[in-house]
Specification:
The protein has 8 helices and 7 strands; from the N terminus they run ααβαβαββαβαααββ. With 250 residues, it is of the alpha/beta class. It is globular, with a radius of gyration of 17 Å. The N and C termini lie far apart (35 Å).
């Protein structure tokens, strides 16, 4: 019998192979441990380019003029805050890492955005929301960490109204061979070393590289989105393909 290719090989990539915890529990623990340095390292390790990537993703959300937006794997709320600055709507941030959410709430309170943004603890693969509750759903660098990718994507589809907009921002692989070689060297050796120094976590940034390497990207991910109930899935590579914006509708 011919072996069926794995839909998401990244599901087997764990932050800590020696741990007895599930991937989901390990991911939550990892992000709680690095929460205090997460924002700094995001901007530092990407040399600030990540701000431009997020801006482009937010533009995709805003163009649909949504009244309600769900930010899956919201972390410290950078995407939710940026959407609030660009568009008047209600935004709900969902994440499994409590410490990340606490930092996000502090940032939201400092900007007086409590009436526009709410942060909620919850599992992205079993969301505590009604069917068709949101006009738009977004996720920045979170789907790669799902223990069950299809379950998480199907939940995003379930809670989004028909005709709503999905926007996912995720790392991918550069198409240019010279760029890919330099990108892999940076992500495999330099980024984990710097990340370990600042975050004091020896696994987090090695896991990032390994999970990016394994995660399906480009047309493969668009095909997965279609199989999970989305329509018109498209991939828009950015910065030589180091990251990709995926859009789809329901």
């Amino acid at each position: 019998m011919q072996q069926v290719p794995e839909i998401n090989p990244a599901a087997k990539v764990l932050p800590d192979n020696a741990s007895n915890l599930s991937k989901k529990a390990q991911v939550a623990e990892m992000f709680n441990n690095i929460a205090g340095r997460y924002d700094f390292l995001n901007h530092f390790l990407s040399m600030g380019i990540d701000k431009g990537w997020r801006k482009k993703a937010i533009a995709e959300i805003v163009k649909t003029n949504p009244k309600t937006v769900l930010d899956v794997a919201t972390g410290t709320g950078d995407m939710a805050i940026a959407v609030a600055a660009a568009h008047s709507c209600r935004i709900t941030g969902l994440d499994i890492a409590d410490q990340m959410l606490e930092i996000g709430r502090t940032k939201i309170n400092a900007r007086n955005l409590q009436q526009q943004i709410s942060m909620q603890a919850g599992d992205s693969e079993a969301m505590p929301f009604k069917d068709s509750e949101f006009d738009a759903v977004m996720c920045a660098y979170g789907v790669r960490n799902f223990e069950n990718l299809e379950a998480g994507l199907k939940e995003m589809c379930r809670v989004m109204r028909p005709g709503g907009k999905l926007v996912i921002l995720e790392f991918s692989h550069p198409s240019s061979i010279p760029v890919r070689i330099g990108y892999k060297f940076y992500c495999r050796f330099i980024m984990p070393t710097i990340g370990k120094w600042f975050s004091k976590n020896k696994h987090a940034y090695s896991y990032l590289y390994e999970s990016v390497e394994a995660f399906p990207y480009g047309q493969r991910f668009c095909t997965i989105l279609s199989s999970c109930g989305f329509r018109k899935a498209k991939a828009n590579p950015l910065t030589f393909g180091t990251t990709t914006i995926y859009t789809a509708t329901k």
